[in-house]
Amino acid sequence: MSQQFPITRLRRLRANQTLRDMVQENTVTLNDLIYPIFVEEELDDYAPVESMPGINRIPERKLDAAIKEIAGLGIKAVMTFGVSRHKDEDGSDSWNPNGLLARMIKRAKDAAPDMLVISDTCFCEYTSHGHCGVIHGNDVHNDHTIENLGRQSVVAAEAGADMIAPSAMMDGQVAAIRSALDGSGFSGLPIMAYSSKFASAFYGPFRAAAGCDLQGDRKAYQMNPLNGREALRESITDEAEGADILMVKPALPYLDVLSQIRQRSLLPIAAYQVSGEYAMIKFAAQAGAIDEHRVVRETLGSIKRAGADLIMTYFAMDIARQGF
Ligand SMILES: [Zn+2]
Fold this sequence. Notes:
TIM Barrel, 10-stranded mixed beta sheet, two-stranded antiparallel sheet, 12 strands, 37% helix, binds zinc ion
């Protein structure tokens, strides 16, 4: 027995920084990132979101300057969320061609025509009850809501949106939107479906940012956080309905789901690092408990490693400024 142990020494490839860089399997660039923004009408100045340090609601009238700043840093895509002052039972302002949703898309495209503007497509920011659709009795009515999602998508497309991202978690929403877009001459417009959107407690800070006063909860349409197989069914269904990109939301607590979808689908996959994930890192860093930049790098890297091609993240501006 002359064999010396160990023969395999994995540490050989970790011996110096250059070599470590060369064998690194994943990285994050600005091509991977989408920056979510909150645009509020009838607001004079930037309004800091208390639960999301560094994030502001952007006044509609200052959107041009904000978009130019974002584009100037090299960010290539934004996802728009409206903070509406014209809420009603159905969220009808979202499909008004002169409503906030259409105006903010137009303004963003005018300010930076090369910036990809992705329209979050839902109703919760536009309904008085905060739910993601039309209420019939005690329930969000699926089929009536997907009809309205189709209307909203066409208005977003006419305003210049580059991609439609339905987040309502209604059954058949991708097919309904695809059919509405195709019927209005937008067959070339892609759909990024929030396929696996969980009823997560990590959305708390977002609700404050988007001004959603939710009555009750969303458990009748968003997914149970303890289910994984169901997320695969949602993703397979969305792909069959014509989704061009699938999404998992939130990201970090659902990396297993992301990884399984990666193995089952050939579509690009996006992951949404949500407001609660952002807040945990920011507040822990503020308390001196963690090194923010390293933790951000590690979390974004792990989302890529699990199989995401694209990441929606509130850290996009920080990455653009400081690098990955
Ligand atoms: Zn919603």
